[in-house]
Automatic annotation (TrEMBL):
It holds the Pfam family adh_short. It comes from Galendromus occidentalis (western predatory mite). PROSITE patterns: ADH_SHORT. This is Short-chain dehydrogenase/reductase family 9C member 7. Keywords: Membrane, Oxidoreductase, Transmembrane, Transmembrane helix. InterPro entries: NAD(P)-bd_dom_sf, Sc_DH/Rdtase_CS, SDR_fam. It comes from the Eukaryota. One of its GO terms (molecular function) is oxidoreductase activity. The chain crosses the membrane at residues 21-40, 46-68. The lineage of its organism: Eukaryota, Metazoa, Ecdysozoa, Arthropoda, Chelicerata. GO terms for biological process: steroid metabolic process.
Length: 376
């Protein structure tokens, strides 16, 4: 195929994948409905507009997920640095990229820990890099280590994956804990990006920032986390525009809720942290609300969290390997995507109403000033 046609094909596949091909499918369905009488009659019976939209979304999702995966670049000569590889997404991505032939530098907070030990077991060239993204010196040391051990490879991608969270309402979280969340989730990404961007400019490579759906919509119990993830989404969008002239692509990974080690271990752990960190006077004001809120939140996580974290790893791999990369890689499932995309485009007032339906119902009593449970 002619190089120009090949590039057009790759760009088309990338754009269709980014927009999930919904409008393309909507147009095709509209044409088909006019030419197939039975289909048009069925759509009229259930409401043509709504039915057309639902079918377009469903078929667009299938077209994107099954048929429009963009072509991948080869791994030859490419190295990748990943932060936060002790466990979770970073650990599995390091294993995946190593198996695909990339030279992997796995940044680990505990380089002698079990996660790091398991990563190097059975691998001939994976490197464990001691890396705490809150420590400027360790980040500089990581840069030097990567440069020393490239051995003919180029640093193609940096995946800023390290992150932390505390599951408490905003008023209950200590200021120093909020600072810790930002130091890891935001400043850790800043330190990593600033340290490795010169190498990425030389290779015209990729900067991949792991964010979250929480960076788009903030819900109860994770406000500081949502703040930090919104910050890195903004950083990635702006940095992508600045780095375009260098040929460096910057994108985000935005997973839905997944069952990972960052989630709370249980109702008891949340309750004990609340009792330990929140002053007694404030605990009295909230009354029995925290117990109900924690039970509600754990139940919600159990219902909506997706179990297969390798779905996210697949998106992270695509961000590294896609020939025509997307701006945002989301891992969610069709119904979660449909729900949250609906909320994304709604005004704040509508988002507040939607969120209120799934929260425990408490209101402050005018006389006592305490939170009391509502009957409905």
């Amino acid at each position: 195929m002619h190089p120009l046609l090949c590039k057009i094909q790759h760009a088309l596949a990338s754009q269709l994948h980014e927009f999930r091909a919904y409008w393309v499918c909507l147009a095709l369905l509209g044409i088909s409905a006019k030419t197939v009488p039975f289909l048009w009659y069925a759509l009229q019976q259930i409401g043509a507009g709504i039915a057309l939209l639902i079918l377009a979304c469903a078929l667009g999702w299938l077209a994107t997920e099954l048929f429009l995966k963009g072509p991948k670049l080869g791994s030859r000569g490419k190295a990748v640095l990943i932060t936060g590889c002790d466990s979770g997404f970073g650990y599995h991505l390091a294993k995946r990229l190593d198996s695909e032939g990339y030279l992997v530098f796995a940044g680990c907070l505990f380089p002698e820990g079990q996660g790091a030990t398991n990563l190097v077991r059975g691998s001939e060239k994976l490197h464990i890099v001691p890396l705490d993204v809150t420590d400027e010196q360790l980040v500089r040391d990581a840069v030097q280590y990567v440069k020393t051990n490239l051995k003919g490879y180029q640093l193609w991608a940096v995946v800023a994956n390290a992150g932390v969270n505390i599951f408490l309402e905003f008023e209950w979280i200590r200021t120093e804990d909020v600072s810790r969340i930002f130091d890891v989730n935001v400043m850790g990404v800043v330190r990593t990006a600033k340290a490795f961007l010169p190498m990425l400019r030389n290779s015209r490579g990729r900067m991949v920032v792991v964010s979250s759906y929480a960076g788009r919509i903030a819900s109860n119990m994770i406000v500081p986390y949502s703040m930090s993830k919104a910050a890195v989404i903004s950083m990635a969008d702006g940095l992508r525009r600045e780095m375009k002239k260098w040929g460096v692509h910057v994108c985000t990974i935005e997973p839905f809720y997944y069952q990972t080690g960052i989630n709370p271990s249980g109702f008891g752990s949340m309750m004990s942290k609340f009792e330990r960190d929140v002053p007694e006077e404030l605990r009295k004001d909230y009354g029995e609300y925290p117990e109900h809120a924690f039970q509600w939140f754990m139940g919600l996580l159990g219902r909506i969290s997706r179990k297969n974290s390798l779905e996210v790893v697949d998106q992270m791999f695509c961000a590294v390997a896609d020939r025509e990369p997307k701006r945002h890689y989301r891992s969610d499932g069709f119904f979660n995507w449909l729900l949250y995309m609906s909320l994304f485009v709604l005004p704040s007032a509508a988002q507040d109403i939607a969120c209120s339906f799934i929260e425990p119902h408490f209101r402050a009593d005018e006389k006592s000033g305490l939170l009391l449970r509502c009957s409905t």
